[in-house]
Design goal:
2 copies of one chain form a homodimer. By secondary structure, chain A is of the alpha/beta class. Chain A has one domain: Rossmann fold. Chain A contains 5 helices and 11 strands; from the N terminus they run H-E-E-E-H-E-H-E-E-E-E-H-E-H-E-E. In chain A, the strands form 2 sheets. An 8-stranded mixed β-sheet of chain A has the order 6-7-5-4-8-9-10-11, sandwiched between helices. In chain A, strands 1-2 form a two-stranded antiparallel sheet. In chain A, helix 5 links the parallel strand 9 and strand 10. The longest helix of chain A has 15 residues. At the A-B interface, strand 3, helix 2, helix 3 and strand 5 of A face strand 3, helix 2, helix 3 and strand 5 of B. Strand 5 of chain A pairs antiparallel with strand 3 of chain B, so a sheet runs across the interface.
């Protein structure tokens, strides 16, 4: 998606060979017009798949997910993150380990919002090692629902997330695929 | 805003005389079409005020804020919440006490995204005692920026938030004003 790549080139900050900071337009300050274009692009790629719900994770997944939900005409659920959480009856719960923060957190979705009849599109801002996406898929499967695919705003293609998810048969659509952050420069796949 | 009140009547759950649960369409599952209408209504009420930025707080403020930002053509910044936070040079920081959770948390905005030239619309999902809005205003004032007004999706008018903020001269636009949650029933102002 060219508008997104352009924005990454102009406003993304390469902090290291692993870390791309996009807090100017995606995960702290948000560019609503770009998010609308992102939502439109997700809808184009996944339309006709019988999607009934979108699931994302707070906080940075919400803006792209809501814009995609608007275009596809489906509700969006955002999983909540907890540092610790007492088990509750009405919650679906999974764990996700963050390499960036070196902490494990619990994510949860209210069981009443997902059913076995749902066909779910997972949306997230970043795909790196795939742990967050895997935890969201775990929640969806606990509900007995199907995973229609995974929509990612920015994929760090030099990490193992895509390979991991593809090996399990999931369709992944990433709107910008970063091949490398070497030499302080963003290089895209293709 | 009638569509919002209708949704609250149909899908809001009165948990107590103090607590209205709206996780079916606002703060866990999100109705994107309703959020678009909410954003449109905020834009109608605040257009022509020279607003340059919207500031909200993660996670439930993001969807209505991004839709308002799309209509007004301005960026949205969401303040991040931390349980604890080491002081950092480039962050504006404030504290907010949650009566619901009985915990104090720290909220922060990157200083580089707000300047003294900004005229800021504050948006949040709920107004109760006004502590979250006050903390956001504190961050905006630390940046030397102006507060154009406060847009609230659901106001609990039986709590002191509106009076507190009005006494300090702020304009508040709430799209649904709840007068009472007595007898398990939502009663709106007017």
């Amino acid at each position: 998606m060219e508008a997104l790549k352009q924005k990454i080139r102009e406003e993304g900050i390469v902090l290291s060979e692993q870390v791309l900071k996009v807090d100017a337009f995606l995960n702290h300050q948000i560019d609503p017009r770009l998010m609308q274009q992102v939502g439109h692009e997700f809808a184009e790629r996944f339309k006709g798949q019988g999607i009934t719900k979108i699931v994302t994770i707070e906080a940075s997944g919400i803006a792209p997910a809501v814009m995609a939900g608007l275009e596809l005409g489906v509700p969006v659920i955002f999983a909540r993150k907890f540092q610790s959480l007492t088990l509750k009856n009405d919650l679906l719960i999974s764990k996700v380990f963050s390499f960036t923060k070196q902490t494990e957190s619990t994510i949860a979705i209210s069981a009443k919002h997902l059913t076995a009849a749902d066909n779910v599109l997972v949306i997230d801002d970043f795909l790196a090692n795939g742990h967050a996406a895997k935890a969201l898929i775990d929640l969806i499967q606990q509900a007995g629902a199907s995973v229609a695919g995974i929509g990612i705003v920015i994929e760090k293609s030099f990490q193992e997330g895509r390979a991991l998810l593809q090996s399990e048969g999931y369709r992944i659509e990433s709107l910008a695929r970063v091949a490398s952050l070497a030499d302080g420069k963003v290089t895209f796949v293709d």
